[in-house]
Input
Amino acid sequence: MQNQSLSPSRILEGLLFLLFVISPFYITSSIGGTGFDLPFNISVWFAATLVIGYMLWHIASSDTITLPKNYLYLLMLPAGILLSAVIAGVVEPVTWLFRILYILAGVIFLFGLFQFKSLSIERVLFFIVLSGLFISLYGIVQMHPLQASDENSITSTKTLLPTTIFQQVNVTASYLATTLLIAIYLLFISLENTKKTIQAFLYVSMTLSTYVLVSSGSRLGLLSLALGLIFLTIGLAKTLRKNKTKLLGVIVLLSVGSVTSYVLFSGPSGLNKTVDKTYGLVKANNSEARVVIYGAALDSIQSSPVFGHGIGSYKSEWLNHSAELYPKYPNVEHMPYTLGHPHNEILMWAIEGGAIAVIGILIALVSTLWSVARFYGLTSFAYFSLLLPISTHNMLELPFYISSLHWFVWLFLIFVALKAISTDKSNQLSLKAKHSIRGITFVFGLTSLIFLLQTASAQKDITDYVYGRSTDKPLQQALINPYFQADARAMANRSVLYYAIKNDDKQKITQLLNQFQQELDINPDLKLFEDVINGFEALEAKQQSCLVAERALKIYPWNGGLKKYLATCSRK
Output
């Protein structure tokens, strides 16, 4: 028993508990956004660093290496992305670095899981359901606050919709749809002697997850859940027929969660909101912003189909191509001023990495689908159902950029599907190589943990600055952090500009305008255009400010403020 409790698999299970259940709930104020802008992603990566470090340490001492049989095809994904990055070049080095590290860490995490043959899949899946329960409870607190809360409260939400730790409804919905399907899956594959308390927990979790998911009004979440239930029914058909009582219980609880949501959370939200949004989508005639988003993406792909435009290039490609489409779709509404993702991951890589990156991704995905389908037959639908919500979300939005928790859960579910389709290979690394791996793992792991701790300070620095919380040294931590440095520098320069305008410091204004205009050539950001226009206004250089406004309107043709300003130019 002692050896079993201290086995590598048990240790990994403890670390995965930290990753899936504990780390996502580092909840503190933020300005929203993606990546490390959201504090929970920092803590998730802190836990993931410990997990990956332990995996590499274990691999270095193993005599065999276990790999999925389609491992060469899986490696085509990082290989295609890396090759396209080398050929197409790098537009934003920091973006490139973090994107590559994100993918490589995911590959190590996935392959590392196969090295722990005694790892209890059911127990780790239970951990994921547990995290879903906690997120559901957080969502319920947001939907039904006991008292009015401060705007900056970590539980506040103006719409009373469950944004939870992710600060976005659809991301919450796809995660809860996943945990709900996992709970049902565990209920039907569990052994007869499974503790009644565990089964009761699964029932409670699926009921609360259904309540929050339906209340969210997320079309994406409800659609992926519906499809997931169909897939799960096909995959577990034989088991369902043998457990009709359990099946009836699941149907009743899903119905209770849905009806309760409609009764307690109706009105503009919940099911009513879902119906309204669906009706609006059908009724609209090319009025959805995605018409322009996808159209601009396709135009960008055509201009460099093989190698792409380079990692970090999407934002500029969006600005270059979106303006041309507005005359064709005059009814487009709610168009964002800038966009960092085309709301489809395949399109994203087609733009930035071209056909090389996309082919690598498709080889990895198709080989996985084929391997699982061929090995399990109809049962494969059960595994596909668990992957479906996050995979569907990935084709309609950008969940992996908002939530790293989605990334690691998705990878673990791929491991669940491929675990039985693996092969052992002899670990032919020399003793010196094994020691080197351990040394490198220790150094990089420690460096990563220190970086993440400093990133947490930098994120707080940015948030304090935006919310106007006084500090002795504003933005000092953010200015030395590789991830936040560019944003912090932009905020600091903007602050200096408006301070100079307030004090009529024309020399400083001129100096900053020269710097800002050079930045506009690389990053034609709307806020930066606004700063330059205001700077020329302060210098009473109306002609130059109008030229800048005219240039900005070509890129942002829907902007009403720029149109009004240019009207004042024509009267001069």
DSSP finds 27 helices and two strands in the chain. The beta strands are 64-68, 422-426. Confidence is low (pLDDT under 50) at residues 278-287.
